[in-house]
Design brief:
The complex is a heterodimer of chains A (254) and B (255). With 254 residues, chain A is mainly α. Chain A has helices at 2-21, 23-44, 58-88, 90-95, 101-115, 117-129, 137-165, 171-183, 196-204, 206-219, 224-250. By secondary structure, chain B is mainly α. Chain B has one domain (2-35, 53-254). Classes of the chains: A mainly alpha (254), B mainly alpha (255). At the A-B interface, helix 2 and helix 8 of A face helix 3 and helix 9 of B.
Amino acid sequence: MRHELRMIGALTRRGLNEILRVPGGALPGILAPTIFMLGMAAVFGRAATLDGYDGVSFLAFILPVGMLQGAGFTGAATGVNLARDIERGWFDRMLLAPAPRPVLLAGIVASASFRALLPAGFLLIVALALGVSWPGLIELGLAAVLVMGLAAAMACYATLVALRFRTQQAAPLMQMGSFIAVLFTTAYAPRELLSGWLGTIADLNPVTLVLEGARQGFVGDVTWAVTWPALVSITCLVVVFGGLAVRGMRRQGF
Amino acid sequence: MRAATVALARRALRNSFRKPQFLAPLVVFPTLFLAINVGGLGATRSLEGFPQVDGFLDYQLASAMLQSLLLGGVSAGIAVALDIEGGFFDRLVASPTPRAAIVLGRVLAAAVIAVIQLVYFLILGLAFGVSIKGGFAGVLCIFVVGIVAGTGFGALGVLIALRARNASTVQGIFPLVFVVLFISSAFFPLELLSSPADVIARYNPLSWIADGLREPIAFSGDLRPVLVGLLAAAAVSAASIGFAMLALRGRLRDA
């Protein structure tokens, strides 16, 4: 077990090293959600004057969306990096290592979880600088857990896609998955303001619960009634996509 | 020169259709954004200052078209950068092909792709209940403004590729497309934008082009916004093609 944990740690460090060694590679994952958050707030800021937003600023409302988007992009980037490793043959060499397939996956996914804190932290600093109120440590901790969880789930999904197509050209498919998962929710407006079809999709989309859980600290108080569905939802997402990714990894090399 | 331009445009189009993974995002991403904007922010029509329109989709369709045309420009730039990286560009320069045709061929292809993008969004809009207020003449106006704008964005992509010389740098401008688009009145009326976005949007040519595309769709068909939009699109095209020619000349001088 200790050996396996060391292996996961090494693979996680490899993923995190990329941030220091190729900082340009991490930049789009930070810039894209930041531009999105600021752009949306500048364009649709007046929407927050509608009934339903409860007087919360649009920037505070959309900040958790940006954080989850950053997590989604990070998860997708993990899949693209894996596809690159497959193309260059590094993944084949990794498969020869005396490590179970789930351990290899855990290392890849753990690095995505930690990397997702970078865009989330940057977005938080920008939002605080622009007047969003400090949510509190427990609220931030909850948001961080949900961001890391979504990054893990999206990394598992992107791994599945990378293992299936084995090329970086599948990147749009990985990005689109996280894009749809995060935005077809109550991302832009409270549930009661969504149009019928989007409201139905948001009700069925488990990421809506994750978003509401991450958002609650920025727009009001944290309540257990919103927190537990968010935690259950993110756990289910990680278990389902993780299970599928493990199955995909076990099929490699045979 | 005309034959070379057409031949290079046909090559560019054939390559685009052979790699649908590059072509699909031009319509898929704007379609998703359009769906989310309409479904999520439709209630903003009740805000004071929002113009009278039949539906939020009527208002947002022009922004999706503009977004798609801008992505078309990025795609054209990536294609040129890949030609440079792959060595095709050098072989082209060594052949007796007129220099201008290298730029114009790619720009012509961008114009053809712009037609496809506009047709797609018009069909999408009509399928979901948009009625083009300007009628047949309005549809023609949309095509004229959209094709000229798409040509200009394509030339802009070529210009950036000739300067950057690699695909990853051109790809890096993708987020900038959204910055420029967000600080325009493409998505929301100018009067309802937050400061300082409203001040910048007032002088952003994309605002004028968006208004030129939107007027025949959502409003009665005042010709003034269409002409202003066309003028802005023509200015972007003329400047982009001119600078792309200069960039090509500079690149050949360096070689």
